Amino acid sequence: MEKVTLKKDDNIFECLSCGACSSSCSWFEGEGGPVPRQIIKMAALGLDDLLIQSGMLWDCLLCNRCTQNCPMGITMAKVVRKGRSHPNAGNLISEDIKKGIKSRLSTGDVNGLTREDFIETVEWMSEEFVDEVNDPAACIPYDQKGAQFLYLPNPRELGINLMHLTAMAKLFYASNQSWTMSSKHTDVTNWGYFISDDKIAREMALMVIEPAEALGIETLVLSECGHGYHVLKILAENLIGRKPNFEIISMPEFILRYIEEGKIKLDKNTHPYPVAYHDPCNLGRKSNLYDAPRQVLAHCCKEVIELTPNRENGICCGGGGGMLQDSKSKPKRMITGKAKADQIIASKVDYIAAPCLSCHRQLGDISNHYKLGVKIDTIAAMASRALLLPGMNDEPPKSSK
Ligand code: SF4
Ligand code: SF4
């Protein structure tokens, strides 16, 4: 068989064998796991099959924390993704990921939600939303041509976490801007990125971009999803060979924009205790989005504190790289999440905000496993809870802790 070398286009031959990558990896002190220096050396030596069989390519969280500390700037996520795309690596893809990709490509949703399911769910939620905001004209719109904003949810918001979608609707309602959802694409995720199949990743990106362009929207607002943001904001242009003809922002960026315009008003007393911010690797280190979520938190919490280390050196939650999407991965995720759990214990915080629903789930799992007793929330859910809507809640909302 033709060798698909990992060497091309990478600077892996510049590796100094210094080991800075290994000591930065969340797994380094834990049992098993990838050894970043070994990955690079095996790739440089052309030991493709040995590297694939080692399992390290799928154990890597694609978090790039090692890259941050590599003196030669070797980008681990790029090398590992190239390895995952090797023809001999296909049988290591988890069955859950294969199934999710199949559903996403056939229905537009990783959980297989059909267009009819979507419409039924959103229309029912729309009726509830009228009561929520006490306004008979309120609704959760879909397929509205010419709306300014299109909201792309996380599949969990149309399944097990419907309340999160209601919270987002409330923020759009408060901003008083025209917005819509789309029954043609209901999923911010892109699992083609995890398996490093650019053909699939491209198809999934186009499933979002083309219907959005057909609706004539100005701005696509992405649900809080780390890898979804990274793919659509940073990688999509290369994947599809052109720029989408609309702006792409995350939900926290949307909220901040309308806080700054004075349209969205939040009450800091809603969360009258210290809240720590967790940097999702795909949003922060890999997409350079650090400040907007922190600024939104500063408007809806009494005190925002930092975990140490943070920003570029932030510690991965332990669920990245497709690990969380594999239902058999929990024992491993509790090892990959140990560094995060230790950080949370050392920081003595009991409330963490993370603008990524995957981090949200993994942080909840490690909190239970390590008995951390921390509450995990998303930025947008906290902002929505703290909303001051004229005539509705002149009294500040009660603390929800
Ligand atoms: S898990 Fe993160 S730090 Fe470890 S090898 Fe992978 S990208 Fe590097
Ligand atoms: S930090 Fe960079 S140079 Fe050092 S061993 Fe790792 S990949 Fe090689």
Supply database-style keywords:
single chain; 401 residues; alpha/beta; Rossmann fold; 3 domains; four-stranded parallel sheet; binds iron/sulfur cluster
Concise synopsis of the structure shown:
The chain has 401 residues and is of the alpha/beta class. The chain has helices at residues 20-24, 36-44, 48-54, 56-59, 65-68, 76-84, 95-107, 115-133, 162-175, 191-195, 198-215, 226-240, 251-260, 291-300, 330-336, 338-347, 357-369, 379-385; strands at 149-152, 179-180, 219-222, 247-250, 274-277, 303-306, 351-353, 375-377. Helix 9 (162-175) links the parallel strand 1 (149-152) and strand 2 (179-180).
Describe this structure in words.
The chain has 401 residues and is an alpha/beta fold. It has 3 domains: 12-92, no CATH class; 96-258, no CATH class; 265-385, Rossmann fold (3-Layer(aba) Sandwich). 45% of the residues lie in helices and 7% in strands. The protein is built from 18 helices and 8 strands. It has a 4-stranded parallel sheet. The chain has a 4-stranded parallel sheet with strand order 6-5-7-8, with helices on both faces. Strand 5, helix 14 (291-300) and strand 6 form a beta-alpha-beta unit. The longest helix is centred in the first third of the chain and has 19 residues, at 115-133. Mean pLDDT is 92; it is low at 394-401. The chain binds iron/sulfur cluster (2 copies).
